[in-house]
Amino acid sequence: MTHQATLTASAPPAARRRFNFSKITPWLWLAPAIALFVPFFIIPMAVVFRYSFNRDDPMALMVSDFTFENYANILTDTYYLTVFSNSVLVSLGVTLGTLALGYPFAYFLVRYARKSRGFLLWAVYLPLMVSVIVRAFGWIVITADTGLINSVLLGLGILKQPLIMLFELESMVPAMIHRYLPLMVLPLINAIGKIDDTLYSASANLGAGRLRTFRRVIFPLTAPGIVAGSQLVFANVLSDFVIPNLLGSTRFRLLAPVIYEEAAIQVAWATAASLAIVMLIIVSLMLLISNITFRRLAPWARTL
Prior knowledge:
It contains 14 helices and 2 strands; from the N terminus they run H-H-E-E-H-H-H-H-H-H-H-H-H-H-H-H. By secondary structure, it is mainly alpha-helical. Strand 1 and strand 2 form a beta hairpin.
């Protein structure tokens, strides 16, 4: 014991420097991300957070202050409460819609697609390369009174009058599902692809059919992909500005367009800042609740 202590004490300074360098190596790898994260996210959000406690003044735009009046107004005003509830409901609905469409697609792509796998992956990535404005105008063409859907239904005699879909939820929600479907599919593809093929045969050898194997083995193992995809879709839908602005209804307001209107049209910067902070809190709570629920219901999935 004494001999080992003597060797440690007499170790050359170069060895100790190498040991210290190994401790900071992870931080060196993180340095580029931190260099972007701090000036382009932390500092702007800190400014917005500070603005949220200021006071709007029609004559002076915004007056420096420290008051909770903005938060009290938006959390008690029925208009803003309706905007919050609308945004959360649409975010949940789009999340469930992308999961319902994306899970079978991802499962088929991983398990059964062989020759067509490259084409299907290309079909997933392609919408990410097209401007969201172009896709929004595409949905305008599809859901207009004289658009594709109404033309087909009227031509087949199913309808006598065109459906009113444009600038309503009926056009906005499908457009959002189309936009954010890749964010759900890609984590699911990764989760399903990690499942060992021997688990399917082992489950069959134990007497389980395909449905039971999927319900008791496959679906629980894909829980990390479901949670990751749901978090990505929910957060992006809640902060979406383009599609609600181009396809949404003025009778059904969502949070991001309202924040823009408060800042750019009403010139109520303090109110807009407080709305933005509440939106960030909603997203953070959703991520926290989903992570806690996931860890309690599927603690075994942490190692996947």
